[in-house]
Write a structure and sequence with these properties.
By secondary structure, the protein is α+β, with helices and mostly antiparallel strands. The chain has one domain. The chain has a 10-stranded mixed beta sheet with strand order 2-1-15-4-5-13-9-8-7-11. Strands 3-16-14 form a 3-stranded antiparallel beta sheet. Strands 6-12-10 form a 3-stranded antiparallel beta sheet, with no helix packed on it. About 5% of the residues have low confidence.
Length: about 325
């Protein structure tokens, strides 16, 4: 089955060319079922690092041609294409985000943390948009019991970054860091076929959790927000690199640091990966177009097939309008 999503700016239905789709389906269908030891090896830290080195660190003969083949627009980049000599350099590119990814002026707006394909919904078990059980177990995802109750029955957004995407994450809200920690785990693929086959994969993968208190002076005033950065196959690390201006002088992310909305926060090593945002109940409302797109029945989504109801992603740009404060 093909996998489609909706391009937000045009409303066009796009068929996604999934990188390594045959390999992923083989791994999650046959290897997973018939050789559990090999499956664990192939989703381990070691395998992920080897695959990343083979795929991303070899010199490129023509970086512009490689970028065009991958559907990457290098016109947004700060650096000239000829200086991006490896696939890793292209995937870890910096962009002119102030002009190429403008933010809404509304201070009540929450923004997307990444160039990604997004699904939004609720953690409440009695809503049609409940997506928790499809992608993660809340009790496992956060890795600390103390935060689970704050987000129980809240709202959630899941952002799937594909290999061609800009790999910096940006802050979706303004607020003060109250907790920041890593949770160890596997390196499952973010390919929709893998997500459908592997039960709650995002609470099993290695991830970094940042809890942000937005009910502070100059904050976004939507309570606590959890931002979870989830690694995946060929993603060896999440490098924290918060900068208040451009990409200059990145700061170590630590408790009490104030984060301004829309600024670079972290960098994924190349590959595909996932961001998850959790909001406390009753504090935000997602944009209407994201809610409408997700329930369309005329789009072929592997998530719809796997979870038994319409579940269609929208392609969203970093720093664009995601939700509004209630």
């Amino acid at each position: 089955m093909k996998h489609q999503y909706i391009e937000r700016s045009s409303g066009e239905v796009i068929t996604e060319q999934l990188l390594g789709d045959r390999m992923v389906r083989l791994l999650y269908d046959r290897v997973r079922e018939h050789n559990s030891a090999l499956f664990r090896l192939l989703t381990s830290t070691w395998s992920s690092a080897v695959l990343a080195a083979v795929n991303f660190d070899r010199p490129l003969l023509d970086s512009a041609a490689f970028a065009a083949q991958c559907g990457i627009d290098l016109s947004d980049c700060l650096e000239r294409p000829e200086y991006l000599t490896t696939a890793r350099g292209i995937f870890e590119r910096k962009i002119r985000y102030e002009t190429c990814r403008p933010m809404p002026d509304d201070p009540a707006a929450m923004v997307s943390p990444a160039d990604a394909r997004v699904l939004v919904g609720s953690l409440h078990q009695h809503t049609l948009l409940q997506i928790k059980g499809c992608f993660f177990s809340l009790d496992e995802l956060l890795g600390k019991q103390e935060w689970n109750e704050r987000f129980h029955s809240g709202d959630v957004a899941v952002f799937r970054l594909t290999p061609d995407k800009y790999h910096y994450n940006h802050t979706p809200v303004a607020g003060r860091v109250v907790d920041h920690y890593g949770v160890d785990g596997c390196y499952h693929s973010c390919n929709p076929a893998a997500v459908v086959r592997e039960v709650t994969p995002f609470s099993k993968n290695k991830r970094v959790v940042t809890i942000i208190d937005t009910d502070v002076e100059q904050g976004s005033r939507v309570g606590l927000v959890a931002m979870i950065e989830v690694v995946a196959l060929m993603i060896g690390d999440v490098v924290q690199a918060y900068s208040r201006q451009g990409y200059a002088d990145p700061l170590e992310l630590q408790q009490d640091l104030f984060l301004e909305k829309g600024q670079p926060k972290s960098l994924y090593r190349p590959g595909s990966s996932t961001d998850i945002l959790l909001f406390e109940p009753g504090r935000i409302r997602f944009c209407d177009d994201l809610l409408h797109n997700q329930q369309r029945c005329d789009v072929q989504s592997r998530f719809s097939q796997g979870f038994g109801r319409p579940l269609v992603e929208t392609d969203i740009r970093v720093r664009s309008h995601l939700a509004t404060r209630i």
